[in-house]
Design a protein that fits this description.
By secondary structure, the protein is α/β, with parallel strands linked by helices. The protein contains eleven helices and eleven strands. A hairpin with a 4-residue loop joins β5 and β6. It holds the Pfam family AIRC. InterPro entries: P2CMN_synthase_LarB, PurE_dom.
């Protein structure tokens, strides 16, 4: 239930087309639904503009299926991150139009269309190995109604590849930069554009990368102003923040 649904419900009660008893039944599931193993936040879209997202890591197939089964009754679009193909197969039995993006490990259910923004988000990736995290960011942003342009494999080891796409990057309202190894690309892009840059360190790299820690620290220590940083491999978080900025 979103803000418009609540307004329609209250208008119905006010004009008498909906009884108070029926209204109470409609509101019983707010602010959350307790499934025992999960408390689904039905109030979140009203508070922050986006419905709750399911993080599938650590959950069982049955738990993910149960959560989505209830969320389908609300009529909202559903986004589930870090999902396995097995989870998707179970969800598809509930809703055959469910989509699965194997690189991003995302399950998506679009029950209502969202108009795309005219401004766009640029998702820039240092290397091909960073694409799974980049796709998590890009698909998250697209799910929330953003136009997205992908610029992949333009890391600093061949920086001429970046300059070949710089006009596209500069045309974005916000830029997501995804990089592993030493994470230098975020600083380079931050020094070339006048838009917010959201840096995403990835766990891509050899031993001294420390599973993304070196890239994280490099990005946090960026000398380029306008660069903010999310957690290691957190493409979803970057896509979510980019969506909020793009829609301001």
């Amino acid at each position: 239930m979103n803000e418009n649904d609540i307004r329609e419900l209250l208008e119905g009660i006010k004009n008498g087309s909906i009884t108070i008893e029926d209204g109470v039944e409609e509101l019983k599931e707010l602010p959350f639904k307790d499934l025992g193993y999960a408390k689904i936040d039905n109030h979140r879209e009203i508070r922050v503009g986006y419905p709750e997202v399911i993080y599938c890591g650590g959950k069982t197939v049955e738990q993910v299926k149960g959560i989505i089964s209830f969320m389908l009754t609300n009529g909202n679009n559903i986004l589930a991150t870090r999902a396995t193909k097995e989870m998707y197969n179970a969800v598809q039995n509930l809703y055959k139009e469910a989509e699965y993006f194997p690189e991003a490990k995302i399950i998506r259910i679009m029950k209502k269309e969202i108009e795309k923004t005219k401004s766009y988000i640029a998702v820039v990736t240092a290397g091909t190995s960073d694409i799974p995290v980049s796709e998590e960011a890009a698909i998250t942003a697209e799910t929330y109604g953003n136009a997205v342009k992908r610029i992949y494999d333009v890391g600093v080891a061949g920086i001429h590849r970046l300059f070949d796409k710089i006009d596209i990057i500069r045309g974005a309202k916000v830029v997501v930069v995804v990089a592993g190894m030493e994470g230098a690309l975020a600083s380079v892009v931050g020094g070339l554009v006048d838009k917010p840059v959201i840096a995403v360190p990835t766990s891509v790299g050899y031993g001294a990368n420390f599973k993304g820690l070196s890239a994280l620290l490099s990005m946090l220590n960026s000398c380029a102003s306008g660069v903010s940083v999310v957690n290691i491999d957190n493409g979803f978080g970057a896509g979510y923040i980019a969506s909020m900025i793009n829609k301001l």
